Every structure is written in structure tokens, then in C-alpha cells.
Amino acid sequence: MTFDKTKVVYQIYPKSFKDTTGNGVGDLRGVTEKIPYLAELGVDMIWLNPFYPSPQRDNGYDISDYTAVNPLFGDMADFEEMIRVGKEHGIDFMLDMVLNHCSIEHEWFQKALGGDSYYQNFFFIQDQPTDWVSKFGGSAWAPFGDTGKYYLHLFDVTQADLNWRNPNVRKELFKVVNFWRDKGVKGFRFDVINLIGKDEVLRDCPENEGKPAYTDKPIVHDYLRMMNQATFGSDASFMTVGEMSSTTIDNCVLYSAPEREELSMAFNFHHLKVDYEDGQKWTLAAFDFEELKHLFHTWGKEMSERGGWSALFWNNHDQPRALNRFVDIQNFRQEGATMLAASIHLSRGTPYIYMGEEIGMVDPDYEGMSDYVDVESINAYQLLLEQGKTPEEAFKIIQAKSRDNSRTPMQWDASLNAGFSTGTPWLKAGKSYKDINVDKEMQGPIFKFYQELIRLRKELPIISEGSYLPALEESDQVYAFERHYEGQKLLVLNNFCGREVVVTLPADYQKGQVLLSNYRGTEVAETVTLKPYQTLALYTK
């Protein structure tokens, strides 16, 4: 018995979704208020980014209390009400679990600092630091108080890594997971979970900034099985996803194959680096279509043949809007938005929609650095200037790559601040809100297309269960794949270009039924002409 593969998940960044108090910050009551809207869209589950107490050094991923609600977002009564209203509308909740590290303000770290040896064993504390590099830059080690020792932080200096080799740590973290299960939560997204299996002895590792010493280690699989057995594994309807940093197909098959009893599925991010010049994020480059297609085909085929399961997505809280990255939005925003949606919703895996994606939201088009609040972007701007870029050149790169692009307030209507807040939003609304907002778009082609994709996944097992086979691999502008299921076949063609292309169809599909298209009146014969950013799904049996 595995989880329901017809389900579609909607990601909410609570801070930016809907503010009900006028303080400029989105809250849990705002989520509750909009549940009927999400029910109309048709989603089954809402993934919430962290809303726990936190110093907010890393947008809530630095947790100081795992079993409480940050007053900024409301209280536990608000949380319980949100779960209840969700259930009334057939929507469950998936929470973000950050179990690789905790804030140094967490009582465990504070007790460790105070000299309690029991809690010192919750962390990696040693006399000499290794040469590992933090993912936020600089050494991955910081002085542990005034003891002369050092503690490990793979991320921000205020995020101390937890020692999963200590059974007491595992016991405490499993208690956290069960606490939220008892509150009615039906899913978890585990943050950078493939980094929890550090080597037994932490030594220098000059290769790749130390990553081989702590990424995808075999013991991670043991820990995930332990957690599965101690927590959510007893509930077959439960859905779990692991965020996997710098991972491999081999490991993601293991993380997600049902018989291994680890997780339901895995996120990987390789496809969102195809517009990085020389692998560097803070650069401007056109996306590499060949690389994108190759990654989708390789992961799609291997995960299909080997029984793994992927979480499929274009957008999240850490990425600029996919529309700006992959589509000519000046001329083809609606066509591009629907094509991108079909390219993952008709594929093999569980699709994730990031808030605003279903109405075709775009990057905010800010005018200056003073509009940005993301610390990563502000640091990157300074670094670009130091590297010799002019302020104009550096700003253009930030405009294209900042995480704030996806964190702008949800655009509900054309009123001030996009209907997000009656106060001053914590982050300025994007310029497009008067034209692109829920009020306007609910009757428009993008929202309706998402509803149709969700409906088709629920109705047709070929979409939720079918295998994945690459198709038209030679095309330099069409990403195409087939799905096969019990004698039925589906061919999905996605034109990633702003110009038409003629495609010669495989014989089986020349008389196929048009299951879905984002253009009307497509003629299907031996060949088919795909319009700019057209998606076309042909069904046959």
C-alpha cells in the first residue's frame, strides 16, 4: 500500500500569502481564509513553509521551538482551526520539518552551551574545525562559546547541526514528528534530509568543499527507516518528501522506493540550474534546453524503471519565477505558463504548485536594491561589485536570480498591496498585480488549465501511475515524453520556444485523441504544427 499518487500539493510561503491583522506579514488565519479558493483549484494538500518560533536568520529554517507557533503567524488555536477547515474542504496539510539543524537559541543548544554534557552530545563539537565550507559561505565551524572548541553549522552560523548518531537526538526528533501527526497533519517535507548522516569521525575533506563527508551517506537510509517506523510509517495515506541537496538518481531511487519504507518521494534541483553559467548561480545566461531535456529524460526514465518516485516542480520559495526563466513573458505569458504546467503535471511523479503559479505570477521587477530583503541577495550584490561588476550589471543579476522574486505577496486583487495586507507588506508587492491577480485570473486560461490538469490526474491512471519513456529526443525545441499504462499510451509534446515547430508523430499517435492542449483547433495527422509554447497531449489505446 503506497500513498495516493493522484494527489497534487500546493506550497504556501505563509509570510507572503494573506495577512489578516494588517501587520504586513501573512498568517495562519490568512491560509484558513483562502482554503475555499484552493479547494476550487482542486489541490489535495498544502505544504507550509516553517511557522515555528525562530530568530528568522534563515526565514524560519532556524527553529528555536519545534512544537509551537511563532506569534508572528498566530497561535496553536489558529493552527488547529486551519487543519479543521482544510479537512472540511478535503485538503490536508504537509509541514516543513527542519531536522538537520536547529537554531542556537533552541534550549538544547543553550543547555549545551551551559555545560550540560547530555545536550553537548546533541551537536558536533570538537577541538579542531575541519576544512568544510558552509553552504552560506565561510567555514562550517564556529567557536562554541568560550570553551576553545568549535561546533558544526553547514548553513548559517546560528544553525547548529544535530547529531543523528546520538539515539537521544533521534528520539527527540521523532517525538516532534509525532506531535504534529497528533494535531492532524498528513504530510511532511524534510529539509535537506540527505545531510543528516555525517561521517562517524569528522575529518578534513578538501574535495567539493567537504560535501562528500556528509551528503547521501548510506547511514541516512537507516535513519529514514527508523523515523518511518517510529512515526508516519503506520499510516498508509501519509505523504512525505525529502529535499535532497546535491543528490543522485541512485540515492533518490532508494529514498523513495516503497518497499524500502523510507520516504514517499524526493525533490532534486538539477533542472533549476540550467541557466547558471559555469554552475554559478549569480550569473546571467539563457537556459540550456538540451541540458534541461536531458535531465528530465534521465531522471524520468531511471526513476520509472527502478521504482522511485519524484516530486515535480518548477517553482518554490528559493527560486525566481520559472516563467521569467523559461518563457518569453512579454509575448507568451499565458501559453508559457500552461505549457510549463503540463510538462510536469502530465509526467510521472507528484506535482507541486507554488502559490501564484496557478495565475501566472512573474518576478516583481523591482527598481533598486532597497526593495530586496533577502540576505543572500544583498550579500551577492556586494560580492558582484567586488568582482568588478558595475552597479547596473550587478543589479540585473539580482533581479533575475533573487529568492525574493518568489516571496513577494500573493496577488489577490488590483487594490493596494495586491489585496495581501491593509498595512505595509514585509516585502513589496510585484509591479504586475494590477494585471495579474486572483480576481482577474480565476476566469482566465491559466487557472482553468491547472484545474483541468488536476482533474485529469484524478481521472486517468495513465497520468498518476503510468511509466515514463523519453520521446523525440533529437528535437532542439520540443521536450516530449510518453506515458504507458495497461495498453494505453499518452504522448506529451511541449514546445519550449516562441516559434512554431513541425513535429512528425510516431505512427501510434497519428490518429490519437487530443486529450489536452493550450491552443484550440490543432490538426493532428502524420505531422503536427506546434505553436509557440504549445503543449499537446495525445491519447491512444
Which SSEs are present, and which pair or pack?
Layout: E1 9-12, H1 28-33, H2 35-41, E2 45-48, H3 76-88, E3 92-97, E4 101-103, H4 107-113, H5 117-120, E5 125-126, E6 141-143, E7 150-152, E8 159-161, H6 167-182, E9 187-190, H7 218-230, E10 239-243, H8 249-256, E11 265-267, H9 289-305, E12 311-312, H10 322-326, H11 329-345, E13 350-354, H12 375-386, H13 391-401, H14 404-407, H15 438-441, H16 445-459, H17 461-465, E14 467-471, E15 478-485, E16 488-495, E17 501-504, E18 513-517, E19 527-530, E20 535-540
Parallel strand pairs: 1-2, 1-13, 2-3, 3-9, 9-10, 10-11, 12-13
Antiparallel strand pairs: 4-8, 5-7, 6-7, 14-15, 15-16, 16-20, 17-19, 18-20
Helix pairs in contact: 11-16, 12-13
Molecular structure report:
The protein has 541 residues and is α/β, with parallel strands linked by helices. The chain has 4 domains: 9-102 and 167-366 and 410-453, Glycosidases (TIM Barrel, Alpha-Beta Barrel), CATH 3.20.20; 103-161, Oligo-1,6-glucosidase, Domain 2 (Oligo-1,6-glucosidase, domain 2), CATH 3.90.400.10; 367-407, no CATH class; 464-540, Immunoglobulin-like (Sandwich). The chain has helices at residues 28-33, 35-41, 76-88, 107-113, 117-120, 167-182, 218-230, 249-256, 289-305, 322-326, 329-345, 375-386, 391-401, 404-407, 438-441, 445-459, 461-465, and strands at 9-12, 45-48, 92-97, 101-103, 125-126, 141-143, 150-152, 159-161, 187-190, 239-243, 265-267, 311-312, 350-354, 467-471, 478-485, 488-495, 501-504, 513-517, 527-530, 535-540. It has an 8-stranded parallel beta sheet. A 5-stranded antiparallel beta sheet has the order 14-15-16-20-18. Strands 5-7-6 form a 3-stranded antiparallel beta sheet, with no helix packed on it. Its EC number is 3.2.1.93. This is Alpha,alpha-phosphotrehalase. Belongs to the glycosyl hydrolase 13 family. InterPro entries: GH, GH13_cat_dom, Glyco_hydro_b, O16G_dom_2, SusG-like_C, Trehalose_TreC.
